[in-house]
Amino acid sequence: VRSLGPNVARLKVLHFIDSLRVGGKERQAVELLKGLCRSAEFDQILVCMDDDDFYVPEVRKLPVRIEFLIRKSRWDPLIFFRLYRTVSTFHPHIIHTNSWMTSFYALPIAKLFSIKLINGSIRNAFSRGGTRWRLEKVLLYLSDYRLANSKAGLLSRGLTLDSPRN
């Protein structure tokens, strides 16, 4: 936090996730929120693209604002504008995503505002082909930092273990 300057009291983190339904990446997002809440150095907002509410009661117990940007379709272009508004209001230092879809929406906005993007979408260690796989690799390359569940996950995306961005 000190590296942000003497006028910055708390690091502002915007967590951008697909949903709060039952699942591993959702559980990891909730645990990250809980862990960061233990420190007075963080101010957080959780932005979610689905209204499935399995973990909502648990998150509502935390000092974290939740905002829902519900998609009208899988590729809803209005999410860009709504996320832009949220970022303009909250002014985060970091945007943390946990899927390739949230990274897709967040990356242009992070670049526009010069906000660091932590892409936490690597959840497996097997390679695939196809358009989605190539898109995910581009999003990972363009992200400021990449977070993976395993070293094998990083390697499966062609990323090196010794990069300070991984």
Description:
There is one protein chain. With about 170 residues, the protein is α/β, with parallel strands linked by helices. It is built from six helices and six strands. It has helices at about 25-35, 55-60, 80-90, 100-115, 130-140, 150-155, and strands spanning about 10-15, 40-50, 65-70, 95, 115-120, 145-150. Strands 3-2-1-4-5-6 form a six-stranded parallel β-sheet, sandwiched between helices. Helix 5 (about 130-140) links the parallel strand 5 and strand 6. Helix 3 crosses helix 4 and helix 4 runs parallel beside helix 5 (about 130-140). It is globular, with a radius of gyration of 16 Å. The two termini are about 20 Å apart. The relative contact order is 0.14.
Structure summarized in a few sentences:
The protein has 166 residues and is α/β, with parallel strands linked by helices. It has helices at residues 24-37, 56-60, 78-90, 100-113, 130-142, 151-156; strands at 11-17, 42-48, 65-68, 94-97, 116-122, 145-148.
Radius of gyration: 16 Å
Largest sheet: 6 strands, parallel
Estimate what percentage of residues fall within beta strands. Answer: 15-25%
Low-confidence stretches: none
Topology overview:
Blueprint lengths: L10 E7 L6 H14 L4 E7 L7 H5 L4 E4 L9 H13 L3 E4 L2 H14 L2 E7 L7 H13 L2 E4 L2 H6 L10
Parallel strand pairs: 1-2, 1-4, 2-3, 4-5, 5-6
Labels describing this entry:
alpha/beta; 6 strands; about 170 residues; 6-stranded parallel β-sheet; 6 helices; single chain
